[in-house]
Amino acid sequence: NLFIIIAYYLIFAPGKLSVDSSILLEDIQKHNASSTGTAVYARYFQLLTINGNFLYLISLVNIISLYLGVKFFCQTYFANFSTFKNSFLPFFILSPFFGFVGMTIGHETPFVSGTLILMSFAKKRLQFSHNEFLKLSNLIIILGGLVLCNCRFDGFFVTLFFLFIFFHKIFMKALLICSYLLFFFLQSNLLLVPAAPQAFKYATLMGD
Asked: In the chain, how long is the greatest CA-to-CA distance?
């Protein structure tokens, strides 16, 4: 699988920009990034493109995160179907869909990756004990999944669902969800990214 990922990366590098990301790239190069997508994606894009000057890193992160998302999902939801699990992942990696989506630089790719990661760990949360689940390695992957998922506005719903089952105690559920709601609606201010007009933001959320 690693050799296939490397081959796709070398063939398609530095990746294909989506329309939204092309606009964001121009804005960042003009030092005028705005959250017409989410502010999380604007900062994610800015950081991994090194202020819009280098596309090779973000495409590498995108294709690896997509692979990990699909891998975690298959391992979690098809654990009892070993033949399907072992055959689907190589088949998926070999498909043009994986290379095209993984090397497309847009907010859809990290969103899909993050959603698969969070949905995988949502099921694991129901299977493992609290202490076993909250290992440092798990928390790092979950944090990455949350960032990736919130690269699109509809990551809002996936994140709410995940936070709802993350803790069993009602107080911790409420604390996490309220903290996330505060972050979601204030993310432009917190991440210092100029906000899109409110009407545009909510229209995008409904459209997503």
From this structure: 52
Q: What pLDDT shows up at residue 9?
A: 87
In tens, the pLDDT along 141-155 reads 889 999 999 988 888
CA distance 59 to 63: 6
Question: Residue 167, by phi and psi: left (phi above 0), alpha (psi -120 to 50) or beta?
Answer: beta
Six-digit token pair at 204?
Answer: 């995008």
- The sign of the dihedral angle between the CA atoms of 159, 165, 166, 172 is positive
The set of residues, in sequence order, having a beta carbon less than 8 Å from that of 204 and lying 6+ positions away, is 36, 37, 153, 196
User: DSSP label at 104?
Assistant: E
Cβ(77)–Cβ(32) below 8 Å: no
Nearest to 50 by CA among 11, 14, 16: 14
Cβ-based neighbour number of residue 172 at 10 Å: 12
- 3 state SS of 105: strand
Peptide bond into 14 cis (omega under 30): yes
Which whole-number Å values give the CA distances from 57 to 48, 53, 63, 99, 204, in the listed order? 6, 10, 10, 16, 27
What pLDDT is recorded for position 77? 81
pTM above 0.85, yes or no: no
Q: What is the amino acid identity at position 54?
A: F
User: What is the CB neighbour count within 10 angstroms for residue 171?
Assistant: 8
